[in-house]
Amino acid sequence: MQFLDLAEQTRLLSQTALTLESLRTEMDRVGASEIAKPVRELCPITRRAHELAAQCTQQVADLAASQYGTMKDGVKNLALLTEASAQVSLSAGLCALAIHSRTEVLLYEDADATPAASRSVLADAISRMDASAGVYRELAQRLSRRLASAAARQEDQRLIARAQADRGITDTADGRRTPTQHRARTNATTPPTAAAATPTVAAKREGRR
Predict the structure, then answer these.
(1) Whose CA is closest to 133, among 44, 24, 43, 59?
(2) Pairing of the two strands 169-171 and 177-179
(3) Distance of CA 46 to CAs 35, 72, 129, 162, Å?
(4) How far apart (Å, rounded) are the C-alpha atoms in residues 101 and 85?
(5) What is the model's pLDDT at position 209?
(6) Nearest in space to 28 (alpha carbons), one of 132, 137, 129, 136
(7) For the chain, what percentages of helix, strand and coil (3-state, to nearest 5) are there?
(8) Integer Cα distance of 88 and 59 in angstroms
(9) How far is C-alpha 143 from the chain's CA centre?
(10) 2-19: per-residue pLDDT in tens?
(11) Using CA atoms, how far apart are residues 111 and 25, in angstroms rounded to an integer?
(12) What is the pLDDT of residues 118-142, one digit of tens each?
C-alpha cells in the first residue's frame, strides 16, 4: 500500500474539475461558430483534453494503490472516480472526432458540409465533461471534509490499520512496512520424514523371521 499526500490529491481533484469547466467553455465557443478552421480551432482543445485524460488515468492508478481505497466509502469513491476518468477520455476522443466531422467533406462527396455534425459531437463531449466535473468536485469535497474532521481521520486510520493487518503488513523500526512473517501452527512433535516413515527392505525381511 502506498501512502499518498491526500491533501495534494484533493487539490488535484479540484483542479481537474476546473480544467474540465475551462475546456467546455472553449468548446462552447467553437461550437457556436461555423468551425471554418476545425484543425486550428479544435486541435488545441483536443490536445489539452487528451493530456487531462492521461492525468486522470494516472490519478486513478495512484489512488487505487494507496490508502484511499481503504478509507470510509473508499471503494465506492474509487469506482466513481474511475467512471469519471473514463468519461474524460471519451470526451477527448470526441473532440478529435469533431475535427474529422468537419473535415470529412474533403474526403467524401456525401459528407455534411455544414458544422452540424461537429456541433453534435461537441455537445456530447461537453455533456460528458460536465458530468465528470461534477464528480471530481464532489469527490474533492468529500475528501476535504474527511481530512478536516478529527473523528473522520481517526476512523480512517483504524480502517487503514485493519487493511494493513489483513494484508500482513507491519511497521519496522525504521518506518518501512514489510510483510508480517506468520508462523505455521503445528503440533509439538515433528512428523516423521518420508524416509523414516517408510520401512526399509531389510527391516521387512527381519520382521518375517
Answers:
(1) 24
(2) antiparallel
(3) 14, 36, 13, 43
(4) 24
(5) 43
(6) 129
(7) 75, 5, 25
(8) 13
(9) 15
(10) 899 999 999 999 999 999
(11) 27
(12) 999 999 999 999 999 999 999 999 9
State the Cα angle at 43 between 140 and 133, rounded to 5°: 15
Q: Where are the beta strands (DSSP E) in the chain?
A: 169-171, 177-179
What is the predicted pLDDT for the residue at 169?
55
- Look at residues 126, 130, 138 and name the one whose alpha carbon lies nearest to residue 77: 138
Across-strand partners of 169?
Answer: 179
For 39-74, the pLDDT digits (tens) are 999 999 999 999 999 999 999 999 999 999 999 999
What is the residue whose three cell numbers read 481517526?
Answer: 154
Model confidence pLDDT, tens digit, residues 154-186: 999 999 999 988 877 554 434 455 544 443 333
Which residue from 151, 169, 144, 168 is spatially nearest to 3, judged by alpha carbons?
A: 169
Q: Which residue has the cell 471503494?
A: 75
| AA letter at 126 | I
